[in-house]
Amino acid sequence: MIPRRSVQFLLGVYNKRRLTTSSVINHPPELLDDLVRRGFIHDVTRRDHLRVSLQTTQGVYAGIDPTASSLHVGHLIPLMCLLHFHLRGHRVIPLIGGATGRVGDPSGRSVERQLADVEQVENNVQCLQKSVRSFFSRAVAYAETRHGAVQEERFLPVVESNLKWHSQLTMLDFLQSVGIHARVNTMLNRESVRARLSSQQGLSFTEFTYQLLQAYDFYHLYKHHNCSIQVGGSDQWGNILAGLELIGRLDDGPSAPATSHTGAYGITTPLLTTSSGEKFGKSAGNAIWLNPDQTSVFDFYQYFLKVSDADVERYLNLFTLMTSQDIQNVMGVHVDHPEKRVAQRRLAAEVTEMVHTPEGLVNAETLTGLFFESDYAGLKVKDILLALKDDPRLVLVSEEEMRATPIYKLASRHGLASSNSAARALVASRGLYVNDIVVCDIQTHIPIEHLIDGRVAIMRAGKDKICILILETS
């Protein structure tokens, strides 16, 4: 593991009382500037007004579409953005689209979504609410280990579902309260609508009204939860503006200009792609999930470990709470010795610890050391046992078996070769290794005194097959 540097708390010194709407937040660096520097801001409404508003506690929300039962790494952009607000004392509201998920957002899509199964959406909403709560709980713990205790009496965000209020609205209620204020010509000019209208398939009325449903979400949260800021991807710009217009007309009166309202704001984050143009968060075409049952902690760690040199500094800013100075220090070492992948290792360690806890990070680094590293000196028996629990490649052996059995027979016995003769051929071709040392003689035994951490022998056949022998304790 790369040693942690002791760094100054980037979030400043927290007040030792809970912030209220009149509380002044004086945390260097200034929040909006920090978000810009880190790469979270694609566009923002009335930037100067927002900067002033952020001197007092604001409510901030971001929507999550319940198209799956797990968060994936693409969700880390809005979640990390909300985390920065949360750690500065603002009230954040992660909003799961329990209602809008049944309709489907046309933004960024060339064809219409299939209508979702209601039961599946409900299950996804429940799973995502649990996942989001877990993310913030672990992310706050991660922040505390890096920068000290988070403010006393800080409550974790309340994860809402917009079905909570949409289910109470009849169609007539919605048309009277929302539809009356919507201008069709404005809705037609939204990029997401224009792109679909020019396509062969066109746009259904169901998808056309999506922006009104999301606009009402913003208004409802503004009116009933004192929420003044919506965060969304850059493809959500039109939907965010629709929400600001609705707030303006409902709050300031139907005759007020759509842009007159000064109490609400929109922030969009960039749609992230890799330096090669691929969509961020995909590996071999598959999504990288935050749920360890869908993407193992080891594979999650490996995804970030394998990012390109061109992307790693940007990801350090977006997906960690490292200070600017700390990132510069890491990148300085990385530029001098790129072959060591210091920046990627730090990135993978930081993100994995935040999402999967320190224990998850130890497991991922242990497996990485076993499978891909040649220096085994830092490996510990207890970490190997935890990382490879129930893995058939982990084998407990007696001291008698290890002392009495030639290595080639151990290789055959524990699956590295199909037979003793195949194991002998492997030795003859110099393709059998123990603790990264080539086995040159078929009569060689594993020296007990050379075991890693006194108990471990890592046997490898070629590049892909591995078996970890651990000496049983008496």
The largest beta-sheet arranges its strands as 1-6-5-2-3-4
DSSP E strands, number: 13
* Name of the CATH homologous superfamily of the largest domain: HUPs
Question: Strand count, sense and closure of the main sheet?
Answer: 6 strands, mixed
Mean pLDDT: 85
Named CATH topology of the largest domain? Rossmann fold
Percent range for helical residues? 40-55%
Known CATH architecture of the largest domain: 3-Layer(aba) Sandwich
Distance between the termini: 31 Å
Task: Give the overall silhouette.
Answer: elongated
* Poorly predicted runs: 1-28
- Cα-based radius of gyration, to the nearest Å: 27 Å
Structural class: alpha/beta
What does this structure look like?
With 474 residues, this protein is an alpha/beta fold. It folds into 3 domains: 31-269, HUPs (Rossmann fold, 3-Layer(aba) Sandwich); 297-373, Tyrosyl-Transfer RNA Synthetase; 388-471, Structural Genomics Hypothetical 15.5 Kd Protein In mrcA-pckA Intergenic Region, Chain A. The chain has 19 helices and 13 strands. The strands form 3 sheets. A 6-stranded mixed beta sheet has the order 1-6-5-2-3-4, sandwiched between helices. A 5-stranded mixed beta sheet has the order 9-13-12-10-11. A two-stranded antiparallel ribbon has the order 7-8. The longest helix is centred in the last third of the chain and has 31 residues, at 342-372. The chain starts with 30 loop residues before the first helix and ends with a strand. Residues 1-28 have low confidence and may be disordered.
